[in-house]
Design goal:
The complex is a heterodimer.
Chain A: E1 4-7, E2 10-13, E3 19-25, E4 31-37, E5 43-51, E6 54-57, E7 64-66, E8 76-78, E9 87-94, E10 107-108, E11 112-116
Parallel strand pairs in A: 2-11
Antiparallel strand pairs in A: 1-3, 3-8, 4-5, 4-9, 5-6, 7-8, 9-10, 9-11
Chain B: E1 4-7, E2 10-14, E3 19-25, E4 32-38, E5 45-51, E6 56-59, E7 62-67, E8 72-77, E9 86-92, E10 103-104, E11 108-113
Parallel strand pairs in B: 2-11
Antiparallel strand pairs in B: 1-3, 3-8, 4-5, 4-9, 6-7, 7-8, 9-10, 9-11
The chains are: A mainly beta, B mainly beta.
């Protein structure tokens, strides 16, 4: 298992540009999440999905969009990039809650470092 | 919404010593409290978690305690080793379908000196 894979690992954008951060998982997890991590801060939830076709906002969704067309993929779209979106972005996944063996653990990718200049 | 405060922001110990990291939370409805370890250039990884119906949980050198009345929980690492050096995050969320909607603390940089 590769786990959670994010691409790209690094990207520099100019103000106003758009891009998509890709995330895929091969663990057949129903739940997927996007978090951002700013320097010296904890992670903040941007968007999450409980299954294909279902997405919902987290704590800091402004300036982002997501889609979930398959169980495996959960891309994060940045429209009109702004310097405030300079951050490290983490995708994560977890099991469908309610299973007897569910621990609640989130499995994180290695992150995508985005700089907006 | 939930707010999680974590202290200290940095912690330096000698190998073999114990390390304690403390967190407080604001939402009394929170009932799931995981701890994640993040090594340089990696994503966070769960090391231990506790649910509100349990006051203490231990896994080898790592233990977590929870005081729901005071709304605080702590991570204890005994017999620290250099490989324990990392950033540690506490987090909180509600139960049920909200397990993964975590509110994280600001993180603690733990350095273990050989």
């Amino acid at each position: 298992n590769a786990g959670v894979t994010q691409t790209p690992k690094f990207r520099i954008l100019k103000i106003g540009q758009s891009m998509t951060l890709q995330c895929t998982q091969d663990m057949n997890h129903n739940y997927m999440y996007w978090y951002r991590q700013d320097p010296g801060m904890g992670l903040k939830l941007i968007y999450y999905s409980v299954g294909a076709g279902i997405t919902d906002k987290g704590e800091v969704p402004n300036g982002y969009n997501v889609s979930r067309s398959t169980t495996e993929d959960f891309p994060l779209r940045l429209e009109l990039a702004a310097p405030s979106q300079t951050s490290v972005y983490f995708c994560a996944s977890s099991y469908l809650l309610g299973r007897t063996d569910d621990t609640g653990e989130l499995f994180f990718g290695e992150g995508s470092r985005l700089t907006v200049l | 919404g939930e707010n999680v405060e974590q202290h200290p922001s940095t912690l330096s110990v000698q190998e073999g010593d114990s390390a304690v990291i403390k967190c407080t939370y604001s939402d009394s409805a929170s009932n799931y409290f995981p701890w994640y370890k993040q090594e340089l250039g990696k994503g966070p990884q769960l090391i231990i978690d506790i649910r509100s119906n349990v006051g203490e949980k231990k896994d080898q050198r790592i233990a977590v305690t929870l005081n729901k009345t005071a709304k605080h929980f702590s991570l204890h690492i005994t017999e620290t080793q250099p490989e324990d050096s990392a950033v540690y995050f506490c987090a909180a969320s509600g139960g049920g379908t909200s397990y993964g909607k975590l509110t994280f603390g600001q993180g603690t940089i733990l350095t273990v000196h050989p």
